[in-house]
Write a structure and sequence with these properties.
Layout (H helix, E strand, L loop, with lengths): L6 E3 L9 H13 L6 E2 L1 H4 L18 H12 L3 E5 L8 H8 L10 E6 L7 H13 L4 E8 L2 H4 L9 H27 L4
Parallel strand pairs: 1-2, 1-3, 3-4, 4-5
């Protein structure tokens, strides 16, 4: 079943290395038959959070927020790609997430983390897990961590280790299972 799975990327650094990972994930999900738009805060230029999307009058929200609200409302799940900044979630990702709330409800999230070191950003992933739970899009049990991001992809944006794709296949199947299950349940109604 084709799913809509936006890939939300969280870095706006000039020399960001995780963008290759985010692009590869979006491409891989599309190759699996899904609609997987890459939401890049560097391209979207969201304002710093002043008011959430729902706090604007219907026609007064900035166009970028209206566009994302429409996309998120059609989403079956979300893939969140986070680096690890000082053992935490990048501010651009937190800002991207905090503009919305109800648009996330009853949709699973899948956390992809990365870092320059050997732990693959798992400390940020654990913080992000608490955040997405509060936003109403609980994370699937698995986390897809990519250590040493600077060496993980070649200049063409392809993984340098074949295990990257093998591990992602299992991760994607888990996300698909949760997204399909929650999509079916949303069609029957939600608890409140």
């Amino acid at each position: 079943m084709p799913l809509t799975l936006p890939v939300l990327y969280g870095s706006v650094r000039t020399e960001r290395q995780g963008i290759a990972l985010a692009r590869w994930i979006a491409e891989t999900l599309r190759a699996r038959g899904h609609d997987a738009p890459l939401i890049d805060p560097m391209e979207r230029r969201l304002p710093l959070l002043d008011r959430m999307y729902k706090e604007y009058e219907p026609d007064e929200a900035p166009p970028v927020l209206r566009e994302l609200a429409e996309l998120y409302g059609q989403a079956d799940g979300f893939v969140l790609v986070t680096g690890e900044y000082n053992h935490g979630v990048p501010p651009a990702l937190k800002n991207l997430l905090d503009h919305f709330l109800e648009e996330y409800f009853w949709r699973p999230s899948a956390i992809v983390s990365y870092s320059a070191g050997g732990f693959g950003g798992v400390r940020a992933a654990m913080q992000l897990r608490a955040i997405v739970g509060e936003l109403g899009m609980p994370s699937i049990p698995s986390i897809y961590a990519v250590p040493k991001i600077g060496q993980a992809f070649d200049d063409a944006g392809r993984p340098t280790d074949e295990k990257v794709a093998t591990r992602f296949d299992r991760f994607a199947r888990e996300l698909e299972w949760y997204a399909e299950a929650l999509k079916t349940k949303r069609a029957d109604g939600v608890p409140y």
